[in-house]
Amino acid sequence: MNTAGKHIALLLPGLGGPASDHPIGDYLERRPASLDRLLSRAASSSLPGADLDSVLLHSFGLADTTAIAPLTCLLDAGQVPAGFVMRADPVHLRADQSCVRLFESHSFTISQDEADALVATFNAFYADDGWRLDAPVADRWYLGCDRRPEITSASPWSVAGEDIYASLPQGGSAREWHALLNEVQMLFHGHDVNLQRERQGRPVINSVWPWGGGVMPGEASSEYTRVLAREPLAVALARHAGIAASTLPADVPELVAQGDEGVVLVVCDDLRWPARYNEIEKWLAALAHLEQTLFAGLLDALAGRQIDSLRLMPCNGQCFTLTRRRQRAFWRPVRPFEQVLN
Question: How far apart are CA 336 and CA 278, in angstroms?
Fold first, then answer.
């Protein structure tokens, strides 16, 4: 696209809503009019990637998810261990009657002291195996390995709330890693941290989830001139590409004021976790909040010539681009946003 002028690219995972037997519109008390108008009058196109991680990686010229762990490790720890590093994030595994479900850190809280204590126990137990677990951030842990494990694995957020069976590590070393995960569950089961969490009625941290392992990628590049996000991978990619990154501003006027000419990437994950965990009430509340604080303001900024285009990417393989000219196309019927997405 022509990047002369000011442009906003908005990544909005979870926009499609939670899985439900009923259409999203059945739950809405009031239509999000600005969002409906935005999508109805936007030009639709395809976009590489069907989830937030893959869309971000493609946006920076990287397609391999094995870059995730080293990128976020550099962000969190300031350095990357020599050799191979993977994420080994703390998770809560809950046994139901017929399966074991995974809940990642967006569904519970964990303090740095709790993380440090669990990691110290892990490292003492596996001291002779060449593994080193670190928790530079309480809910993002990293496992350094002497050699590349022969496994592939899914991200914990892609398994969140679901049975882990089909998503357990696969590959030549799968059996070894399945045994490791079982061993870690036993190791953490009676840990003082978890005994205290049980007394407090909090989910226990009873396993780790390995994923995203690899080595630091080569150079990254992007059309974006600034990144506004709290999502760690987005911030890590921006820094790796030498692009300025900061947190999301409080409102649209501040958002617009932060951007010079070029394309500003805004990553908003307010809808992501309620959608992932099928929390319809939380998702509806987040959507209503974004309608008031984001969608309406961005359309006003477009109409008022404060920005030249707005791109909305729901992280589902679609991209919707709205310019001032298309925004004024009153003859285009306004449709419910969920119908446009589908």
Answer: 21
Tell me which amino acid residue 12 is.
Answer: L
Among 61-65, 104-108, 156-160, 213-217, which is the least confidently predicted range? 61-65
Q: What is the pLDDT of residues 205-227, one digit of tens each?
A: 999 999 999 888 888 999 999 99
Taking every pair of Cα atoms in the chain, the longest distance, rounded to a whole number of angstroms, is 70
Q: Which two tokens stand for residue 155?
A: 């991200």
CB atoms within 10 A of CB 214: 17
Quote the Cα angle for 180-54-105, to 5°. Answer: 45
Q: In this structure, are residues 342 and 39 in contact, taking their beta carbons and an 8 Å threshold? A: no
Rounded alpha-carbon distances, angstroms, from residue 147 to 73, 86, 130, 154, 187 = 18, 11, 9, 20, 24
Nearest CA to 302 out of 322, 331, 288 is that of 322
Q: How far is CA 322 from the centre of its chain?
A: 24
Strands (E), 222-303: 224-228, 244-246, 262-267
Phi/psi at 11 (5° precision) = -90, 125
Contact 184, 207 (CB under 8 A): yes
pTM for the model: 0.93
Cα–Cα distance measured from residue 16 to residue 50, given in angstroms and rounded to the nearest whole number: 12
Torsion region of 272: left, alpha or beta (phi above 0 gives left; psi -120 to 50 gives alpha): alpha
φ, ψ of residue 159 to 5 degrees: the values are: -105, -10
Helix (H), strand (E) at residue 189: helix 174-189
Residue 300, both tokens: 């006003």
* Distance of alpha carbon 254 from alpha carbon 239, whole angstroms: 22
* Beta strands, E only, the chain: 6-11, 43-46, 84-95, 100-103, 132-137, 140-145, 207-214, 224-228, 244-246, 262-267, 309-313, 318-323
